[in-house]
Specification:
111 residues; alpha+beta; five-stranded antiparallel beta sheet; 3 helices; 5 strands
């Protein structure tokens, strides 16, 4: 199954778009093998986000705060979208931010 995803990097407004041919449920090992090199070997942290109006899977380096990675504004906006939709009027800067690379799939892969 063709599975599009985007690689969101700090300082870039647009993601690098790629596709991978995966089954409906790729499993942890396939996900890890694809994503860890994109995170420079970092530990995977999974976050469910609202992207393009539907639930999607985001993966970031679990230790991005400890490593002092630069803020990723595009991924942060996607990460915060659901909270802001549910709580209109919330100051976005009171919500957590994402730093370092973020990989977002255009369908649910973490099943």
């Amino acid at each position: 199954m063709k599975t599009p995803y985007g690689i969101y990097l700090p300082g870039k407004a647009e993601p690098e778009r790629r596709d991978v041919d995966w089954p409906h449920d790729p499993g942890y090992d396939r996900i890890r093998d694809l994503i860890r090199p994109l995170l420079d070997g970092g530990k995977l942290e999974h976050v469910t986000v609202l992207h393009n109006g539907k639930p999607a899977d985001m993966f970031v380096d679990e230790d991005f705060q400890d490593k002092g990675l630069p803020r990723n504004d595009a991924a942060t906006a996607i990460y915060r979208a659901y909270s802001l939709k549910c709580q209109p009027g919330t100051d976005p800067e009171t919500l957590p931010a994402i730093a370092g690379p973020a990989i977002i799939f255009e369908r649910r892969v973490w099943l």
